[in-house]
Amino acid sequence: MAWIFLALGLVLLVEGLVYALAPSLVEQMLAALRALPMDIRRLIGLLSLTGGATFVLLAVWIGL
Does residue 56 contact residue 7 with C-beta atoms inside 8 Å? Predict the structure, then answer.
């Protein structure tokens, strides 16, 4: 259960840093995402999901 809180905390930390340090870059990224077709956005989401799950499993395997 503790690793769930750790993972959520790390996500919020990274998201907060991005919004605090480069809010204009976030706006540009959102505009670029709007320009992509829905299928490509879905593929990016699935690849992110797969990468995140891989990192979580790797952390558990290493012995978090």
Answer: yes
Q: Residue 26: count other Cβ atoms within 10 Å of its Cβ.
A: 13
pTM of this structure: 0.69
The pLDDT of residue 12? 92
| 54: three-class secondary structure by DSSP | helix
Interval 19-24 mean pLDDT: 92
> How far from 56 is each of 2, 8, 26, 37, 45, CA to CA, in Å?
13, 11, 25, 29, 16
Alpha carbon distance 25, 15 (integer Å)? 13
Residue linked to tokens 């990468």: 51
Secondary structure element (H or E) that encloses residue 1, with its range: none
